[in-house]
Amino acid sequence: MDNPTNQFDVVIVGAGPAGLCAGMYAGRGMLKAVVLERGVPGGELLNTELIEDYIGFESILGRDLAEKMAEHAKKFGAEIRQETVEAIEKMADGTFEVRTSKETIYRAPTVIITAGGTPNKLGVPGEQEYAGRGVSYCAVCDGAFFKGETIVVVGGGDAAVEEADYLTRYAEKVYLIHRRDELRASKLLQERLLANPKAEVIWNKVVKEIKGGPQGMTEVMLEDTVTKEHSALPATGCFIFIGFTPNSGLIKSHFDHDPSGYIITDDRMMTSIPGLFAAGDLRVQLTRQITTAVGDATTAAIAVEKYLKEAVEVG
Ligand code: NAP
To answer: Which residues of 208-238 are buried (b: 16+ CB within 10 A; e: fewer)?
Structure first.
């Protein structure tokens, strides 16, 4: 039998900036809302040391902003539960079932998915073997283990360039390895890194293998993307920031998406499944910032309110 405590107006999947902001707006809209999060609320904020591009906060620690957002959402009535969502499905009666790893089923006429993404892997030999023994996907979590050491960062986007700069506070030397001769990252982040004496960019190179021994990784094997020459670079850490894959696979009904799995929405943030809304990093869009995530979430939560009202009027 259904547990009435798991019946909501809206189920919000994920408690990063988008999920928390959607929770806050849903609460203000007097909707019965639950935010389901597998870990601690904050999402990508928890993987970022210092936030300097969230308007109104010139500089704030990622974890402090996460805490403020969670408190704010709770203050307006959003309930945050620690649950790992495994499937979101639209049922024949038009409502949604959200199933979690604890076998709990949440039911609601609307869902906002804000589940972000999972870091992409290089897929080279040694990457899995040395994961946690040199290979990392989170500078804030693991940077301090590399005090005084030489490490590499792979990628050329905002994440790689920002985290390479951050990692120089621990490492003696940080090499940023990029496959082209031009970075994708914003000019401001590029300038900061290029001015950092402890950082150096290695252009036109890809990592072909990560090698090491019983103590952990010791070197990365590189290939020049122009000359195809091979070389070895000694390093005890390899931080990989080559984008991420959206967690849109949780949606078990058919939905429109781009070739990489990013969800396509309309201007109300509604997906091709009526009643299912998406906000934040897993949505098709030009850029993925905290500001865009909370912007999406604001629109989605207000659109949910209107959608429910219209459904009542029609019904
Ligand atoms: P991204 O912008 O997609 O950049 C991924 C980088 O990895 C690109 O430089 C790409 O090279 C490289 N790459 C991809 N696959 C590779 C492979 N197999 N081997 C080697 N290199 C590979 O991803 P991101 O940096 O994670 O950023 C994701 C989104 O979050 C972006 O919209 C970004 O603006 C945003 N973000 C913003 C901030 C900030 O504003 N402070 C911080 C972090 C992230 P190519 O350039 O050659 O394609």
So the answer is: ebbebeeeebebbbbbeeeeeeeeebebbbb
- Whole-number pLDDT of residue 201: 98
pLDDT tens sequence across 45-61: 998 888 988 999 999 99
Burial class (CB in 10 A: 0-12, 13-18, 19+), 144: exposed
pLDDT band at 122 (very low <50, low <70, confident <90, very high): very high
Q: Whose CA is nearest to atom 39 of ligand 1?
A: 158
CATH for the 135-240 domain, from 3.20.20.70, 3.40.50.720, 3.30.1240.10, 3.50.50.60: 3.50.50.60
Helix (H, G, I), strand (E, B) or coil at 242: coil
DSSP state at residue 55: T
* Between 140 and 115, residue with greater pLDDT: 115
The average confidence (pLDDT) of the chain is 95
What is the 185 CA–ligand 1 centroid distance (Å)?
7
- Give Cβ neighbours of residue 72 (< 8 Å, ≥ 6 apart): 20, 24
Indicate whether residue 262 lines ligand 1 (CB < 6 A): no
Q: What fold does the segment set 4-118+244-314 form as a domain? A: FAD/NAD(P)-binding domain (3.50.50)
Active site residues: 138, 141-142
pTM (2 d.p.): 0.86
Q: Is the pLDDT of residue 1 over 60?
A: no
> 247 alpha carbon to ligand 1 midpoint, in Å?
17
Ligand 1 and 51: CB distance under 6 A: no
